[in-house]
Specification:
- There is one protein chain.
- The chain has 173 residues and is mainly alpha-helical.
- The protein has one domain.
- It contains 6 helices and 3 strands.
- A hairpin with a 4-residue loop joins strand 2 and strand 3.
- Helix 1 packs antiparallel against helix 4, helix 3 runs antiparallel to helix 4 and helix 4 packs antiparallel against helix 6.
- The chain is elongated.
- The termini are far apart.
- The C terminus is likely disordered.
């Protein structure tokens, strides 16, 4: 696992820690996690292998990421503040976000610190190519980040459209 791998994973965890406090919902706050996973995608995702049972690993990983992202987005409070739309991750949203990042981080640590032989045996037993693991993890991250971003953005847009300027909780979970 490279230093940049650690930085990306820790940055994604750090982003949710920052979001435990209410912050203005801006394009920048929404797109920073997207930029991080795009960098990872550019770095690691060169092709999506489809041989053997590769898609039986990649599709569920991607769907798990989407589910975690939707859950984190729904569990993020989005509401009108005094002068802006605010978003604040709840503890449950943070747990889902950290769960997704943590699973990927744990797998990376395991695979580079003694787990490679057992992952190799699993891959052979289930007809998964070695080239399928990185895309599965990257697409899981894409799914998580893009789903959460889309849900929070849509909820923020709905709050902006609501009438009145009173600071009430709107569309929160």
């Amino acid at each position: 696992m490279s230093f940049s791998d650690w930085l990306i994973d820790l940055a994604l965890i750090g982003l949710v820690v920052l979001q435990l406090r209410a912050r203005r919902l801006t394009v920048r706050s929404l797109l920073l996690p997207v930029a991080l996973v795009c960098w990872a995608g550019f770095h690691y995702l060169h092709a999506v292998p489809t041989s053997g049972d590769d898609l039986l690993l990649i599709v569920p990983a991607t769907l798990a990421g989407l589910a975690l992202g939707v859950g984190a987005g729904v569990l993020t409070r989005v509401y009108r503040g005094d002068d802006a739309v605010l978003a604040r991750a709840t503890a449950a949203a943070a747990v889902l976000w950290v769960l997704g990042v943590g699973v990927r981080l744990a797998f990376q640590v395991y695979s580079t610190h003694g787990g490679a032989p057992s992952i190799g045996r699993f891959s052979v037993d289930h007809q998964i190519s070695a080239d399928a693991w990185a895309p599965a993890l990257v697409l899981m991250a894409f799914g998580e980040v893009l789903a959460r971003t889309a849900v929070v953005w849509l909820r923020g847009a709905a709050v902006r459209r609501t009438a009145g300027g009173r600071p009430e909780r709107v569309l929160s979970a």
